[in-house]
Structure formats: C-alpha cells, structure tokens
Amino acid sequence: MNAAGAGGPEELASTEEQIEAVAEAVRESRHVLEHVCRYHDDWFDEDLRETVARACREVEPLWDKAAVTLNINVQTQLRDAGLLDAQGEAKVRGIKKWAREFFRNPNKRFFGKVAKWMNILLGSLASIVPGGEALKEFKEVVEAALEEE
User: Fold this and answer.
1) Percent helix, percent strand, percent coil in the chain, to nearest 5
2) pTM of the full predicted structure?
C-alpha cells in the first residue's frame, strides 16, 4: 500500500523482500570486489597487489557474517540505518545498475561508479553488521590501491 492506503506503482515490497534485496546488494558488492581482486589485480599499484589480495581473503568471513545478520530480527536497525523503504531501494538499485554495467564491461570507470554505491550501502551497514566497518574500509583499500592512469 502507498501512503494513501491504495496500492500503486510506488508500493514498496514487503519488509522481508526489502531485507532480501539488501542482502543481495551486499552479495553483489562482495562479487564485484572479489572479481576486481582476482581478475584485475593489474589495475593495482604493483607494490600493493599482494597485500590487497591477502586483505580480500581476510574479509571473506566478514561477508558471511553480514549475510546472516540481515534478517527480519534487525528490521528496526535496518530502517534506522536507511536500508529499508525508499532509501534502501535507492541503494539497492544503484548497486544493481552499476554492478551490471561493470560485469558487462569491466573497467575502472564502471568500478568507480559501483564503488560509490557500495560506499553508501556499506556505510549504512557498518552500524548494524559485525565487521561492517571493516568491509567498508576494505572497499576503500581496493579503491586506493588502483593505479592512477
């Protein structure tokens, strides 16, 4: 139902569906970052390649913790963090759009676009998810390690 009580195109998905969409956006963020670390390590400054690869492996358990934390039991915290309703939908759609573009044509420009949306999402998650701040900072490490063109 929309604010007026009638269903319409602006009707939001159920809370459970919204939470699943946020979880999917987190999984997509992980996929993008792991893809860059595994298949585009030549984008990184040579002195940082091995360290970034190790950091990618170190945060793997944090992604798993984030996935299990996102459930109906934390809906109030998710809403307070701007991860549900229109704010959450915007974050999810931004990641989906730019991740899709990145995987169609993997390049630094599209990575930069999806990374901006990941920063917003991971910043919101940091207050809720164990290790959320470390995930956000890992994304920032990946961005900082990119060689300037």
Assistant:
1) 75, 0, 25
2) 0.90
